[in-house]
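From the pipeline queue, job 12 of 40. The input is one protein chain; the requested action is below.

Action: predict structure.
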Amino acid sequence: MGPREYAWLAMLVLCTSLPLHAEEASVDDARDALSKKDDDADSAKALEEVFQASEKSYTLLKKGERTLTYGVDYSLVRDTQIETFRTGSNIYSVLSQSEAQHTFTNSFTFDYGVWDNLTFSVRLPFVAKYDTERDLNVYSLGDISASLRWQPWSSTRGRPVTTLFATLGLPTGESPYDINSENDLSTGNGYYSLGVGANMSYVIDPVVLFGSVGYTYNLPVRDIHQMRGGRILEDVEPGDTLNFSMGFAYALSYDVSLATSYQMAYTMKPTYKFQNANLEGTEQTSSIMNFSLGLRTSPDYIVNINAGFGMTEDSPDVLLGLSVPLDIKGLKAQ
């Protein structure tokens, strides 16, 4: 084979190899275009963010981080109160009275990251309550509460995240044991409370499953000296409370999410100690279905709107709420 034949053979090989190299280059370009970049939105992370915004009790902050959240809530409770009144020696009369209490609560919640796995939180509520059946109203500070949330094990993708919590309730609101129950309304429980429990969440993109269990010890109230039904109430031993909740959050898009949760609380029988007798109250079971819509208004802020309804006689009839993160200079970690 002469030099001319070798030249023609080299040109033939070059022409046939060009499409192959072009095809390999186009495949590499397509693969690079489809691969995830560092600045692309992580759907699982975004879902976890909107979930934590709607379920604050599952949220942990990094060490030194601080957040302030404003919330406004409304609840309607319709009930009929039945009381016995002493009208003579061992003679009692029964009185029933209808109630329709509308409660508006404006609250500020401050969260601080003590460590990466420990977050401190305090909630300051301001309550306005109206009883349209009895034409009563009250405006006052509610019961302040504080909590610690601790994550004992680090988060691992594909495994549930467990958080332990402890809560403290302070009777800073208008106590039902310090007022005239016929002419005044309360804005608090009237007793201290201590609670412990555990939360668990699990991400299955695009869904987050979550649940919690808890126990609350309600401390007794002493030296009340309140007139009730013609008798003087001395002490109250509130029943302890067992509660649990479960639900899921679903990401419709990067900016919109929905969450549904079921909450149930069982309160044991309280004991009322009068001067001449001790009476047991009735146990209470609260059952609530709640729905929440999360809207991302900016990359760092999520607004939540929720609505719910009670499923038992001891539950509020209607629940509405709105929570908004507040951006105040000086709160962010340096």
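Job complete. The chain has two domains: 1-35, 39-326.
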